[in-house]
Amino acid sequence: MDSLRDTPRSLSESSPIDVLHVDDDPEFSALVAAALEREREHITVHTETDPRVAVDRVRRDDPTFDCVVCDYDMPDLDGLDVLASVRDEYPELPVILFTANGSEEVASEAISAGVTDYLRKGDDTSRYQLLANRVENAVERVRASRDSDRGLAAIENATDAVCILGDDGVIEYANAACTELFGYERAELLGRHWEAFYPDDDGQAVSDSVLPEAREGQSSGQSSLVRKDGDLVDVEHTLTYAADGSLIWTLSRVSKRDRLETKLSRRERAIDEAPIGVVLTDPDQADNPIVYVNDEFTDITGYSRDEAVGRNCRFLQGEETDEAAVAELRAAVDEREPVTTELLNYRKDGTEFWNRVRIAPIFDGGSVDLFVGFQDDITPRKTYERLLRSNTARLEALFEHSPDLVVVHKADGTIQDVNQRMCEELGYTDADLVGKTIWDLDPTSEPDRSKSFWADLPANEPRRFEGALERRDGTTFPTEVHLIELSVDGEDLFVAMIRDISEQKEREAELVEQNERLDRFTSVVSHDLRNPLQVAMGRLEMLQDDCDSDHLDDIDRALDRMDDLISDLLILAHNGNDAMEVEPVGLADLARACWPDGATLTVETDAVVDADRDQLQQLLENLFRNSVEHGSGDGDVTVTLGETDRGFFVEDTGQGIPESDRDTVFEAGYTTSSEGTGFGLNIVSQVAAAHGWEVRVSEGTDGGARFEFRVD
């Protein structure tokens, strides 16, 4: 819980904090000021109801504010506008959004804009304790940052070279000792990648070995780095990950002897961790035996290092290995030349795998010292290619009779073939279309961008995107395209399977308009109604601490009923606005999880239904609450959850629902209790409708109410 996470400091350890609170509701502003100053004696709240005046006060810096707490939904300037204005003048000043508008979209936008924290208003004073904690934490972080600046000054004057690297390995800071070590000016060091200081190809090898160690805590060792003048400098390095993901790179000079020993050890470790199989063979020994294999080789083949070393690589060959590929490898070794080929090999357990082998000689003083071989397991690709060839006839039939529009084109967009469905939809013959470019038919396409898109498409991996097509008569329609690259007789072709999504786009447009109306409605309910309600609840809670009256309980019940009404209205709005995530849900476990106190639940089913878990929970909670609130009158009611042949039922032993009311019981506003909101069963009906279920109400076995849901 937030209140457990945000633990405040003791008052004796806290320095004074000045907070500027911005909210267009004067009564709520006064409540927040009183509550915060009651929670923390060292916090002083300055209130502004006009956001423009508040921004001017910050710019005047009179008084000096340590934190700004701001509502989101205000006239003239909203909370994000205030945030932007404050950041223009004081980039480090903490800004906390404290608002009744709890939309995930608003929260995401606020976080993207750089808000310090985001907190929803609540109905009780515990929210102000949480707000006080958030203010203290935010101010403390800023003050700690100022202290860190002093630490940076100490780093600047350190005798060891110190660099701060971003998570991409680029130098973001270098102290004065770095300029002396590398011979560069500071401006020349900033922006350079740390691997650039390693000779030849050492940089990548060091990254592959050092970075994983650093992520585990710290990596230390010796390196040989290249200065600006080309000379090598031997250093002892330490690489440490900071909490923000950056890297601290500390360097001090070491002897040449220590550098050489470290370099040899590092290269061997890097090869061991390479993501492909690596083999070294010695042509000076009889039969060119293996003298080294890395870990990936043992993973691919199933042979241990001891089982492979001393043998010729042919031990991986078997009955189905292509002799032509083997002869190609043998000829390249005899001629001391590099070669790449693909052949079928066998693992230790006898299973086949396709091996892409690359062999190259390593020269030393003009003669071949060793051969290095790189081995990739390409079995998945070979399996796919074989499957594709075996299904050519089926693909051709699918092409011609597919209900989708199908186009085959080259990488330059030139159409090679179309199916009959494409011709019928666009009003062309196949002769009209073949030879055109694909973007001739798509008024929304950009040829240069499309070429780049196709060029980067991974082979045999479908890619989905949306576009449009233009018919011969000039009318257009939106499309959904599934594009895949295939290699046919050595030529790269693209197959586009196209579907008309006009109806889908119309439904999406209608849904957007509907959601916008719902958003406006929920904004009014959550802000314009809930804000004054929260003020009343907060003031009532403070009043209960100061005096005692029989009227206070009546006021509390009335406010709770208003809060229930607002909550039900928001549920009704969101049930039509939120996307459903349908998954198998166990009725028994969900019912027990949301069962209220004060009654008895009997579960007579282990059924699992496909439903949106949150909405189904809302349905059950409303039915359970309805049963408890409309009980038998003696306070003792039993609710049974059971299974029917077409779905499930919820039945109680309460007063039941008169037969004359059963046709109207699901309408908004129906209630027989002065405590009810009139929306509970309407929410049940809407949740059922959203799932495509039928709901019927009847008399229960013992005279109570029975709700049956047909879910198939």
UniProtKB/TrEMBL annotation:
Keywords per UniProt: Kinase, Phosphoprotein, Transferase, Two-component regulatory system
Domain Histidine kinase residue range list: 524-712
The keyword Transferase is annotated on this UniProt entry: yes
Superkingdom assignment: Archaea
Entry keyword annotation includes Lyase: no
Entries under InterPro entries matching the protein: CheY-like_superfamily, HATPase_C_sf, HATPase_dom, His_kinase_dom, HisK_dim/P_dom, HisK_dim/P_sf, PAC, PAS
Pfam families: HATPase_c, HisKA, PAS_4, PAS_9, Response_reg
EC number: 2.7.13.3
Response regulatory domain location: 18-136
Molecular-function annotations in GO: phosphorelay sensor kinase activity
Residues modified as 4-aspartylphosphate: D71
SMART domains: HATPase_c, HisKA, PAC, PAS, REC
Domain PAC: 337-390, 463-513
Alphabetical list of Gene3D superfamilies matching this protein: 1.10.287.130, 3.40.50.2300, Histidine kinase-like ATPase, C-terminal domain, PAS domain
Residue stretches in coiled coil: none
Reaction equation(s) it catalyzes: ATP + protein L-histidine = ADP + protein N-phospho-L-histidine
Residue ranges constituting the PAS domain according to the UniProt record: 147-201, 263-336, 391-441
Alphabetical list of PANTHER family matching this protein: HISTIDINE KINASE 1, TWO-COMPONENT HISTIDINE KINASE
Protein name listed in UniProt: histidine kinase
The organism of origin for this protein: Haloferax prahovense (strain DSM 18310 / JCM 13924 / TL6)
